[in-house]
Amino acid sequence: MHADAVQWTRRGCYAGMACCVAFTAWAILTGPRHRVVDLGFNFPLHPILIGLCSHLVLFGAGFLASRLFGGHVPDNVESLTYWSTKKTVPAATEHYSVTFLRQNRQISE
Predict the structure, then answer these.
(1) Contact in structure between 56 and 68 (CB atoms under 8 Å)
(2) What are the residues whose beta carbons fall under 8 Å from the beta carbon of 9, sequence distance 6 or more?
(3) What would the pLDDT profile of 44-87 be if each residue is shown by its tens digit?
(4) One domain for residues 69 and 85
(5) Cβ atoms within 10 Å, residue 97
(6) Which residues contact 23 (CB under 8 A, 6 or more apart)?
(7) What is the reported pLDDT for 93?
(8) Is residue 3 located within the same domain as residue 31?
(9) DSSP one-letter string for 47-97
(10) CA 58 to chain centre
(11) pLDDT of residue 55
(12) What is the pTM of this model?
């Protein structure tokens, strides 16, 4: 891993998810259209923005918790993405897709 790479931790991910759930519940319950609870500090934006704002809370809280509290970082963290798996098996994928297309006569031999 690069020395300047940000290391997100398991503890940070769980903290981000917990903050996201709490924020989403608050925003839904205190939203401007169908307010269930009036806390005095209610969610003032359009309800469609709850999803956008909750993702910002998720990533922001996860990042801060990872930096502040640390935690476990898997050894193979670089291989946990779609792009890393795509780099490891391109030949097999291409072979099967070409074989499939030839069998269905979508490409010529």
Answers:
(1) no
(2) 65, 66, 69, 70, 71, 72, 73
(3) 999 999 999 999 999 999 999 999 998 877 777 777 677 776 66
(4) no
(5) 11
(6) 53, 54, 57
(7) 55
(8) yes
(9) TTHHHHHHHHHHHHHHHHHHHHH-----TTGGGGSHHHHHHHSHHHHHHHH
(10) 8
(11) 97
(12) 0.66
For residue 109, give its domain range: 81-109
* Cβ neighbours around 62 below 10 Å, total: 22
How many structural domains does the chain have? 2
Q: Which residue has the tokens 């499939």?
A: 100
pLDDT one-digit tens code per residue, 11-35: 999 999 999 999 999 999 998 888 8
SS3 5: coil
CB count in 10 Å sphere of residue 14: 13
